[in-house]
Amino acid sequence: MSTESTQDVSQSTQEMSPSAQVLPRPGPGPATAAVTASSPLSPSWIAAARTSVTARRTYRDAALLCGADVLATAGVAVALSHLTDLLPTLSAAGAVVAFHARAGLYRPGLQAYALDELPAVGGRVTLAWCVAATLLAVLGAAHFLGVGLLLAIVVSNTALVCAARGAVYAARRRACRRRPRSTLIIGSDSTAHKIAAVLTDRPRYGLRPVGLVNLDGDQPQPPEDGETNPAPIPVVGSIEDVTRAVIQNTVQDAVFLRPLNEEPQGAALARLMTERGVTGWLVTAGCLLEAHSRRHQDNGHLWGFACRRMELSCPKPGGTWGKRLLDLVLVLPALLVAAPLMAGCALAVRISDGPGVLFRQERIGQDGRPFTLLKFRTLRPDDERESGTLWSIAGDRRVSRVGTVLRRASLDELPQLWNVLRGDMSLVGPRPERPYFVQQFTQRHPGYADRHRAPVGITGFAQVHGLRGDTSIEDRARFDNHYIETWSLWRDVRIMCRTVAALFRLEGR
Questions:
Q1: What sign has the CA pseudo-torsion 124, 126, 127, 131?
Q2: Integer Cα distance of 241 and 70 in angstroms
Q3: DSSP secondary-structure letter at 134?
Q4: Alpha helices, DSSP H only, in 354-472?
Q5: How far apart are CA 183 and CA 191, in angstroms?
Q6: CA dihedral defined by 192, 195, 197, 199, rounded to 10 degrees?
Q7: DSSP letters along 21-53, please?
Q8: 54-78 pLDDT tens trace
C-alpha cells in the first residue's frame, strides 16, 4: 500500500494559471485590479464563515416564507374565534407549514412567483382546514365548520397566503438586483457564453458570472449566431483554480450545464461546492430526463433554459432513530447471551498470548468522528505505527492458534457489541477503517468518503457479499453507498441473518 497522498481539492495550490484570473466586482467608481495568483488564500475559518453566510441565506428565505404562511393562516383562525374554538383552528397553521415543507415550498427556485404556486398552495390549505374541521368535530366544539363556511375560509386563506408569499418574493427579487451573487458557470460549449450573457444582461436573476469552469481541457466555444460576450469572463481550467476562484470571489452559486456524472471530476467539484456552501443549479437547453420533476419549483427557467436546483451532496440516510432503537433492542440481549462466550475467548487469549486481552484501535465513524474500536487481540503489533498502517495480517506468523480460531469464526469482533451499546457503531453499516487508510482511500476512490454519512457497523452489505479482508475497496464503497441510499430496517434484519449464517459456515478471515 503506497503511502503517497494527493492534495485534497479543498486546498489550493500556491500558483494559479493566468487564464484563471478573477474579475473585479463592479462598482460606481473606476474598476479595481483583478485578483491574481499573488493574492493569499483566505484562511479556513473565513471559508467556513462564507459557508455559513450561504446557509443563512437559505434559512432566511425559508423562515420568511414560513412566517408568511403562519401569519396568513393564523389571521384567518383568529377571525373565526367568535364562531368556534380558537385552538383547533390554529392547528391549520401548523398543518399548512407541514404540508408546504413536505412539498418543498420553502426551497424556492431561482425565480419564484406566488401565482405559479397558487394550485399547490390552494390544495394544501384545503387539506389543512379539513384537518382543523375534523379536530373541531372530534373535540365536540360548539360550532362546526359547514361546507359553505369551509369553502369561504379556504378561498380567503389561499388568497392571503399567496399575497404574503408574493410580498416575500418581491423583496427577494429586489435584493437580487441590488446585490447579485458571484457565480461560476461550469461547462465548455457555446451555451456557457450564452448563459453568461443572460445573467449579465438580466440582473433580476441575482447571479453575476465571475468565471467559466472548463475541466475538459478544450477552449470554450464562442457564442453562435454572431453573439458576443458583454464582458470578458476568465476561464478556470483546474480544480485548484476553481477552489481559489470560489474563495476569492465569495462564490455562492454555480451553474452546471450538464449533470455531475457527465462532468469531468464531477465528484471533486461537488465536494468542493458543498464544503464552501455553494448552491448548484442545473441549466439546460432542450429535454433532459433527469431534470423533469412534478414540483413546480424544479420546473423554472433562466431566460428559456430549463433551470432547477441541484443537490451537490449525497443525502443523509433516514430512519436514524429507528436504526438506533433496533440496535439497542438487539444488542442488550446479545451481550447477555454472548457474555459466557466472550469470557471464554478472553481466557483463551490470556492463557495463549499473555496480558492484554483487548485490542484498542482508533477508527473513523459517522461524519468522520474518531472512536476507539474494541477487539480481542489476535496479534501484538510491534508499535503503534504498525497498528495504524498495516493493512492485513492474513498469513502473518505472529498470529497465534487461538487468534487464528477467533478470526476464522469472527469471534474477535464480539467486544464491538460494547461499541454498539455506547453509540460508536451500529450492528449493520459500512465497516470502520483507520484514519491512515481513510485518507488514502478517500483520495483514490470517488465515493469512499460518502460512506461516512451513515453509522459504521459490525457487519454490512459489502461484508455479506464476501467483500471483507483484502478485497476491492472500490467495490466495498459502491456496496456501502448503495446500502445507505436504499436503507430500511428490514434490510438490516436480512443482513444480520446472513451474517449469522456466515458465522456458522466459518466464513471468517
A1: positive
A2: 45
A3: H
A4: 384-389, 401-408, 416-422, 435-444
A5: 15
A6: -140
A7: -BPPPP-SSSPPPPB-TTSPPPPHHHHHHHHHH
A8: 556 778 889 999 999 999 999 998 8
Q: Residue 334 burial (CB < 10 Å; 0-12/13-18/19+)?
A: middle
Task: State phi, psi for 394 to the nearest 5 degrees.
Answer: -60, 125
Which residues touch 445 (CB under 8 Å, ≥6 apart)? Answer: 473, 474, 477
Identify the bridge partners of residue 185 per DSSP, sorted by sequence position: 212, 255
Contacts with 383 (C-beta within 8 Å, 6 or more apart), sequence order: none
CA distance 14 to 8: 14
Output 139-144 pairs: Cβ under 8 A, ≥24 positions apart: 139/85, 139/88, 141/84, 141/85, 141/88, 142/84, 142/85, 143/83, 143/84, 144/84
Name the pTM for this structure. 0.65
Cell matching residue 92: 391549520
The whole-number pLDDT of residue 245 equals 92
> How sure is the predictor about 38, in pLDDT bands with cuts at 50, 70 and 90?
very low
Are the CB atoms for 392 and 414 separated by under 8 Å? no
Contact 245, 183 (CB under 8 A): no
Helix (H) or strand (E) holding 363: strand 358-364
Farthest CA pair distance, the chain: 86
The helix or strand, by DSSP H or E, that contains position 160, with its residue range, turns out to be helix 147-178
Which ranges constitute the DSSP H helices of 411-457?
416-422, 435-444
CA distances in angstroms from 436 to 5, 11, 67, 493, listed in the order given: 10, 19, 47, 31
| SS3 of 180-247 | CEEEEEECCCHHHHHHHHHHHHCHHHCEEEEEEECCCCCCCCCCCCCCCCCCCCCEECCHHHHHHHHH
Sheet with 279-284: list strands edge to edge: 235-236, 207-213, 181-186, 253-256, 279-284, 305-310, 300-302
Roughly how many angstroms between the first and final C-alpha of the chain, as a whole number? Answer: 19
H/E element, 375: strand 370-376
Summarize the confidence of residues 438-448 as an average pLDDT: 87
pLDDT tens digit string along 225-256? 555 445 578 888 888 999 999 999 999 999 99
Phi-psi region of 432 (alpha: psi -120 to 50; beta: other; left: phi over 0): beta
Q: 22 and 236 in contact (C-beta within 8 Å)?
A: no
372 burial (CB, 10 Å; 0-12 / 13-18 / 19+) is exposed
Q: Determine how β-strand 235-236 pairs with β-strand 279-284.
A: unpaired
Between CA 491 and CA 330 the distance in angstroms is: 15
Quick check: helix, strand or coil at residue 308? strand
Which of 103-107, 188-192, 276-280, 433-437 is predicted least confidently? 188-192
Helix (H, G, I), strand (E, B) or coil at 172: helix
